[in-house]
């Protein structure tokens, strides 16, 4: 990854602004780290040590960010928002597959509220102009008081084009230089939206689950696209993505009939 000199000029996250705003959101408790290998790793450790629901671990600079399937998430200093929210869900295990989808959907809506045309690509990449602006990694952690969920979110905010790690990435600054909100504003807006979206979904039972499913399908950039899904083991599925079912699986019409794929089964979904 190329890191330009710009990163030297970027100020750290303003701890006072974050603390002041989060004082108004008592169900989020901030742990701000100047540097951390991975906020998901830290939040997982805290969960095993007994930390309560609502711990928000934020790294000003994350040095070894984790993606899915042992991939990495790379962000230059001072340019990104990287955080993990520790949750202790009370919903049944069968509802857990919705957590990453709910998070991606909510992050896209939060970025849309800042003025970006952000869409979620199934299961949970957040895209602007077809490029990835945010990635989500939800991990289940076994603890003495039951399973916890670590909801990790990385958003490219100030990153310049030449600093982006892959050609398929974008940032808020690259997508719309005139709009770019502060990193503090993005962090606070997105974290509060994820917390609220999760609370409403968890408290709302089957009605809220059905509402989330239909809202997700309406917003998802993948539905209606011809796709290729790479499955583990090297097999590939091609067809048209037509729906996301109540279990969060992508419904694909193929030449051999309808197939449903769970997020855990998929290596890659790309437009044909
Ligand atoms: C993800 O994985 O997209 C999940 C990323 C989650 C990152 C957050 S940051 C806070 C928390 N703590 C962590 O340690 N992780 C979470 P996946 O779908 O596997 O995508 C990874 C792929 O995205 C990489 O292989 C690259 O191709 C690409 N990539 C890496 N860094 C990127 C970036 N900054 N922007 C866009 N794409 C990126």
Output the keywords.
272 residues, alpha+beta, BirA Bifunctional Protein, domain 2, SH3 type barrels, 2 domains, 7-stranded mixed beta sheet, 5-stranded antiparallel beta sheet, 14 strands, 29% helix, 32% strand, globular, disordered N terminus, binds biotinyl-5-AMP
Oligomer description: single chain
| The level-1 CATH class of the largest domain | Alpha Beta
CATH architecture grouping of the largest domain: 2-Layer Sandwich
Following the backbone from N to C, one meets helices and strands in this order, namely: HHEHEEEEHEEEEHHHEEEEE
Share of residues in strands: 25-35%
Poorly predicted residue ranges? 1-5
E-strand count: 14
**What is the helix content?**
25-40%
- Structural class designation: alpha+beta
- How many domains? The number is 2
Put simply, the count of helices is: 7
Task: Kindly report the name of the CATH homologous superfamily of the largest domain.
Answer: Bira Bifunctional Protein, Domain 2
* Main beta-sheet strand count, sense and barrel state: 7 strands, mixed
| Spatial order of strands in the largest sheet | 1-2-5-9-8-7-6
Query: What is the C-alpha radius of gyration, as a whole number of Å?
Result: 18 Å
């Amino acid at each position: 990854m190329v890191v330009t000199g710009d990163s030297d000029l970027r100020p750290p996250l303003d701890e006072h602004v974050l603390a002041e705003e989060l004082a108004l959101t008592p169900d989020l408790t901030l742990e701000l780290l100047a540097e951390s290998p991975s906020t998901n790793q830290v939040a997982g450790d805290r969960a095993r040590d007994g930390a309560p629901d609502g711990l928000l671990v934020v790294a000003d600079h994350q040095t070894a960010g984790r993606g899915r399937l042992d991939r990495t998430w790379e962000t230059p200093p001072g340019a990104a928002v990287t955080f993990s929210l520790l949750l202790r869900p009370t919903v049944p295990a069968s509802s857990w597959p919705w957590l990453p989808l709910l998070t991606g959907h909510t992050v896209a809506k939060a970025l849309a509220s800042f003025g970006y045309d952000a869409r979620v690509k199934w299961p949970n990449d957040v895209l602007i102009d077809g490029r990835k602006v945010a990635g989500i990694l939800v991990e289940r952690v076994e603890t003495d008081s039951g399973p916890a969920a670590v909801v990790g979110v990385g958003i490219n905010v100030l990153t310049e084009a030449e600093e982006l790690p892959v050609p398929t990435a974008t940032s808020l600054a690259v997508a719309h230089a005139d709009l770019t909100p502060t990193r503090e504003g993005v962090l606070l807006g997105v974290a509060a939206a994820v917390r609220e979206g999760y609370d409403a979904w968890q408290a709302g039972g089957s009605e809220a689950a059905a509402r989330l499913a239909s809202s997700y399908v309406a917003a998802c950039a993948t539905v209606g696209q011809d796709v290729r899904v790479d499955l583990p083991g090297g097999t590939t599925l091609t067809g048209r993505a037509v729906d996301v079912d109540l279990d969060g699986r992508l419904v694909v019409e193929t030449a051999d009939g309808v197939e449903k794929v769970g997020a855990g089964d998929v290596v890659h979904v790309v437009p044909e």
